[in-house]
Amino acid sequence: MPTTLHPKVEEYKNELIATSKSKGIDIFITEGHRSVERQNNLYERGRSTDGRIVTYAKGGESFHNYGLAIDFALKLDNGDVVWDMRRDDNKNGESDWMEVVAIAKDMGFEWGGDFSNFKDYPHLQMDFGLSIRELQYGKRPKVDQYAEE
User: Does residue 149 have a pLDDT over 50?
Assistant: First the structure.
């Protein structure tokens, strides 16, 4: 199992932060690579532990476990982070959240808000054409798979 973000996901994460910043939107990456143990702990929320359900993916069933996903939030001037999808701090009449999503989609990220069964609004992933099942069986995207030509 990988222990860090895939190099291309890391590169695009940094580009997403910079491009968002250039539009007056500060974002904070709340999660990147996630261990199987952490994934299992998150899965237990709202089931065997207190809280609300935050995922339907057990350890090994999340793109986070393979370094192919990030979660983000908006960062306020005072350093706080919020998950406010209506906020418009750059005052351009558009939701800052959805501006970030649009930037991410242009880069090739899939957005968890588009998922059909469980909406995961902070979630962005790049699957490089691989399914969770393929990842579980050891298949990995090549590091240079989406290298600039």
Answer: no
